What we know:
This protein is mostly helical. It is built from six helices and no strands.
Amino acid sequence: MRRGMLSIVDRWVQRVGRGAVVLALLGMLGLLALGVVVRVFLPVIQLAGYDEIVELLMAWMTFLGAAVLWGEGVLYRVDVLTSRLPAGLARPLDLAVRLACLLFAVVLTYEGWRVAVLSAETTPFLRFPKSIAYASMPVAGLLMIAYSAAGIARAARALRPRRG
């Protein structure tokens, strides 16, 4: 039951994450296209502040997209070395890589949290707190930590000797 529930949560997180990344990308493209159209064809109209929204969307798209790819195990995966190693060496290497990735995710979460909490900056025109964009780092980091922990558990199970 527990694995089934985790699988459901994982699928939900992946779908929501992918959807948010796609919406952020479409929002960015729409705002940038609108900015170009207004500049070229309607120069008498001022479209101010849209670039600040694009910056916010870019931060969330980047970090949330990285977390989604991390969850799929494709962000940092380089199989050139591990595919050539015998299983007895590839499995411990896989565990070591996952531990290093966990360390990165912990640092990203901690430092991202510090930046988001300590930031008192606002955007120049819209006066959005920049901490909204910076919050994408610890949110993505927490997702990466969860996925790393699951990957470490799988890698550790793969190291156990098989019972015959």
